[in-house]
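2 proteins. here.
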Amino acid sequence: MSLRSAAAAALSLLLLVLASGLSLQAQTDVRAQLDRIRTEITAFEKEVQANLTNDKGLAETRAKLEPLQNQLRMTVAAQTPILEGIKARLDQLGPGPDAAKGQTENADVARERLEQEKAQRDTEGLLALARNHLVAIEQLSSRITDQRRTLLTRALLERTDSIFSPLLWANIVRALPGEFRSLQFLFAGWFVHLQSQLDGLRLGLLALAVLLLAVVAVPGHRYLRRFEARPVWPPAEGEPVPARPSRKQRALAALRVTIIWAVVPVMVCAGIYNLLDAMNLITERMDGFVHTLLFGVALVAFAHGLADGILGPDNPAWRLVDLDDRAAGKIANLAKAFPTIIVIGKTLEALMQAIYAVLPVTVGGKALIALLGALTIIRTLRGLRSLPEAEIDDPAQAQPSGGLFTLVRVVAWAAAGIMLISVALGYVALGSFIQDQIIWLAMVGGVLLILVALVDEYIGYGISPEGKVGRQVMQEVGLSKGSLKQISILANGFFRVVLFIAAAMLALAPWGLDSGDTLGTLRAALFGFTVGGVTISLSNIILAIVLFGLGFSITKAVKVWLEKSYLPHTKLDVGLRNSIATSIGYLGIIIATVMAASTLGFSLDKFTIVAGALSVGIGFGLQSIVNNFVSGLILLWERPIRVGDWIVVGEEQGIVKKINVRSTQIETFDRASLIVPNSEFISGRVKNWMHNDRTARVVIPIGVGYGSDPDRVRKILLDVAKASKDVLREPVPRVYFMRLGETSMDFELRCFTDVDTVLPTKSELLFQIHKQLAKARIDIPMPMRPREWLEPPREEGDLPDEKADRSSARGA
């Protein structure tokens, strides 16, 4: 062995050792990570058991499980290709030798097989552990979700004293003096805490920060209000009349107004809370009260902006919904008053929690807020009755009947009724919960309304053929109006579905549908779940569709390039060019299908199962389809007919225009399309005028009088045929004396021409033959047909038998 070979072998061995060491270290790190996750899962199981009645604790534990799930999914995703690579290397090495048969193999190969088998066992063990931990976390998450829903149901259906119960109010009256004292102690303690925390410097910083917030907030809000940009429409008398705002302009204005009304209060409230928290000015008992109060102020501001932007009570032209002025004003007032009532209730509830108020006081406060909210809704709904005709100044502003507005009114009446009944029967928690959901659903629905309008305008209309972007796309890309319209409709529908799914998740979240559960379901659909060894994954399905579409598009582009650019410049006939292009199209579709199937995880054994299922289907119902498909392949390979051939099928004939997978398209001479299944060309009889060549025979029968010279007639016919430029010189034209007829001597002129000129050539020859025979005074006799003369029927009175009958009657 040379020195160079020994060095190469030593280097290879060193690299192998290093790779093995790195692989072993990576496997060790993964196992340590899995052991740590197993310990954390055990700790979380104990937390869940300890917090079975604590919804907040369960929610916190549920949030801690999400990072572990992500780690385990990443581990599975990382180890799966490693395992596949190990299996591929073992397949290349093949099975080990059979010692019983005395088989042996190379020592290096045996050592490599042992290492790969060990790596396979280790990797499979890691994957099994990771998947087991993932299942344990999913089960724990499901348990937490079920327990939280149970707690929610139990809390909503917990019955207390009715708001109309004298006992409840008697207990409240007895407890109020003590609650007021607790309230005084609470604020006194907070004041003492503020005095202890605020020295001269900190007090100055706090005052400066509050002043800065005030200076920024008030002018900032006024400045942002300038961007509402909603001029009054119609304008005042004498001013130019602009176009009425479009739906797109109204939706953008509604979004601007909502953001403008919300951004400053939200920033100010968040700044105040963070400032107080940073300076340690909030005690533990006051934290909930301060947080609820500031959050409530931001919520009221957001609701005010949303109602003003959508309903436009002071500017009907910019109103996003179809409502009259009075209805819009009342609903806008409700949208501003109802959140204020809820915020007051939540603030009082947080305050009662801070002073550890007795149960009757808490129940009474929540019941009063729920009752006030229900009465506010009912008062607004009663005011939404249809206006008398005399009070409606503009018929276009008439209140819409039916539709979404009626549905909202019915739901609002039902919600208010449930709140009243719940409070009256003592289910105060249920009434309060319904009240919270009304404002939550209203805000989600308002934002959804604005976003759907924007999606319709920017996607549905914007990229349609009528939109500006759509027109540019048609000019730049060359898409047709129909295709672009379909794209805009599909895109608009897709974004609408996304918005409605997001809104549904937000709407159902307070009812126990945790976002983590929803996202877990979506993740399972997107990234796959295994059924029977096959991973069903929406992301893989989408990727497979994209790959198939890409392969199909490339195939179509190559096929068009062959048909339009390359093949026409070759010496191949039209039929062969079509066969080549069609075959390449089939090949490209097969390759695209295989790529898509491999992305979905279908291996060769699964293809075998599918083929077996297809064979059963073929036996039952797909036999004719497969027969036509195979026949189409035979037509392309054997080429008994080709594109451009003149064929006769049964009583129909025409030119072959296209040979498809299932059928062949023929254009008849009447310009009609004849669709013939491919199997008929293989199993039936077909006449192809152009199978071998394009030569066609023209046969013209001629009858001349008995006084004519046959040789002269033959010469005239041959001269006419030879003088025609469309008659082929080979085979030479011939004239045959066919028979001596009853009234004429019958000849036939037989010549050959191109198949496309048969009819014009025959017509031209007949014109010339008639002309030359007339010029030579050769008679063309007309056929003689015998005629039978019939006697006209006599009158009824002229019949002899009837005359005799009448004579005998008169004699009698």
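next one coming up
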Amino acid sequence: MATELRWLDAQQTIHEMIARQAPLADILVAVANWAGLILPGALVSIMRYDAATRTLSLVPGTSFSADYVAALQYAEIGPEAGSCGSAAYHGRLTITEDIHEDPKWAAYRALADREGLRACWSMPVLSTQGELLGTFGVYHRHPAAPTEQECQRMQQAAALVALAVIRDREARDQRSVAARYQALYSQHPDGVYEFDTRGRFQRCNRALERITGYPESMLLGRHFQEFVLDASRESTQNHFDRALGGEVRYYELVAVRADGRTRDLEVTNFPIVVEGETVGVFGICRDISARKAREERLRLLQRGIEDTPNGVVMADATQPDLPLTYVNRAFTAMTGHAPEDVLGKNCRLLQGGDTDPETVARIRRAIATHSDVQVVLRNYRRNGTPFWNQLSIAPVLDEQGRCTHFIGVQQDVTRQREQEARLAFQASHDTLTGLPNRASLEARLDHDYRQNQQREALLILMIIDLDDFKSVNDGLGYEAGNQLLVSVARRLQEFLGAGDTLARLAADEFALLMPGLPNEAEAIAFAECVLEALTQTFTVAGQRLHISASIGIASNQQVLEQAHDLLLHANLATQQAKRQGRNTWQWHAGGADEDVSERVRLRRDIQEAIELGQFELHYQPIVEATSGRLCSVEALVRWRHPERGMISPGVFIPLAEQTGQIIALGRWVLRRACHDMAALNTERACVLPVAVNISPLQFRRQGFLAEVEQALVDSGLPADQLELEVTEGVLMSGAESAIALLGELRALGIQMAIDDFGTGFSSLSYLRDLPITKVKLDRAFIQDITTKSDNAAIVQGVITMAHHLRLSVVAEGVETEAERQDLVRRGCDRLQGFLFARPMPLAELRALPARLPVA
């Protein structure tokens, strides 16, 4: 009875070891010890089966030597492989009563003898499904056969071994699954977490801590809604409830991190089911904020591309013909081609017969080298109408640097091109007649001169100056005068041959450049024809007019230093034709005018003086007539020649007007005067306006208004401290545009004055419309005012008329006290002349008193 209790206790201990998952080796030792109790005198062996190698290995124990245990590792199974190998092979109890006699032990008999073993009974250890797990064996040191009871006990022991092995394998499988699950849980890059059925956190991985900014300790036990943005709470709760009901839910929400920032999350929820009961909800979340930001940028980019006014196209660079894969709405609007008409086709469908081949070649070279390119080319819309396309093409590279697409941005620059053409035309042509202007003529003259000199061919230049054109303006008005000029231009154009150039140089002056005449006799005959044509009747403003012209002719047959000398020679010949009675031509004889070379040198010196800064400004005071108070100054340019000393303005200014150099000189005078007066007024803490004379050529030049504005900005001189003086010459061509420009200058606050008023009465017809503030009486009317009644009458009339028009009057050239008193008595507002002060440098002006003596 006591022995049976020991068996039961030992068996109970084994079951407890299996239950608490003790190490299998310890359990098998306990089983062997227990079997030793129920099978007295037996040496118990337990062998484990390895399915991968189909071998058996003896489990170490106290019954056998180490050599024996080592020899029976990875022992093969088979019908002749000893008792254990045979039992495993056949799956049934195998009994060897005497090892010496059993042929199955032939391979192991010597080993058994050394171990002192004579009998072996072996039982296969099988699972309930018949899977071989090992063998349970009993050895004796003498030949023996088992009893039926011993066989039953061996079967019990084998079952106990099977239970231990299976439970150990299951435990190991569970631990493996748990380890795999834990590795997946903890190492998963997405946030993984569990909720209980109330939605409270039970656990989470490190990824969720990183996403939320909260450590796990601060999440456990808290409801998920505490971490969800208000706008996402209702939908998040709905998805949780449906997951709790057994569904798998995929959705997005906006979570609030610990630092207060929001993150966009992509969430998966599914139920945790244990034995058919939902005990919680699993959650997996991924931070998709970066993806959302990319999607938003992509959406904005796509919207921007769709809404841009520029056409955008994409072409597939991997296909041989670069088919279009995308076009935006602007492309469709620009070209008239619907997407379905062009997708899959090459963009060359926009080209036509007038598309520049070199531009197309540039595009192809850039595509071949995967380079950026920007061109402007002529394309055609679907309806056949042309347009100018400013096209930018750039390659699109993938992550490996391979070009997969080309993107093209198209801009319709037709209006810009047309505007540029108009501006270029206006810069090089006369706005009234449409003929080339002086600048264009000079450029053409340079070209034809060089070419004809190389070919030793004749080059003829004619200056055609209309005789007494001023009387047309004075008698019929400027509109009629402009119509006449246009008619003259059209009549002269009828004489043009191939390569000839007709230009308008000034109000009533035209130039005709002819590089193709064979000889001088042809030039003379040509001039006679022109004179004859101009004497034919013109009909202007419903009236028949007859005019004539004086023509000056010059050729390159004379010795010339430069092409421009031809223009000077033709001008001199024109003046000679005028002196000979007009309506004639005169050929420049060369040497007949002694001052030609002097004028050429002087023109060159003027250019050098502009470049080297040899000009300087003097300022002549303008005073109140009655008090002598200094009111303003007039800026007068002076030229201090490095070799010839001071050169009179009467010498160089007319020449600068003829050559066009007056533009650069006038620009310098304007900027210098503004700078000097701004500095002087700051130094003296006073307001002393400055008057600047503006040449008609400078006034009519495009961009003059911007030059004045820039001079004021750069100097800091207020606009109301600048006065611009213009002569009636600004009205000689385009009176309406001149009046409009005067109005723009007045709108800036600049004072405007008509200089040398009275030298021509044509200004009177426009005087009431001119946006001016002052008229200046020419010195010709001031001198002898006290002795000549006609001069006095004109002066009195101008002063009275000006005052009625709310204009002030300045008398120039006042040199005597008698002239001053006479002008004061007549109501003249301001005086200027040597009586008060001569023009002086800025340094002397600084020392001038605020009031000049008047008596």
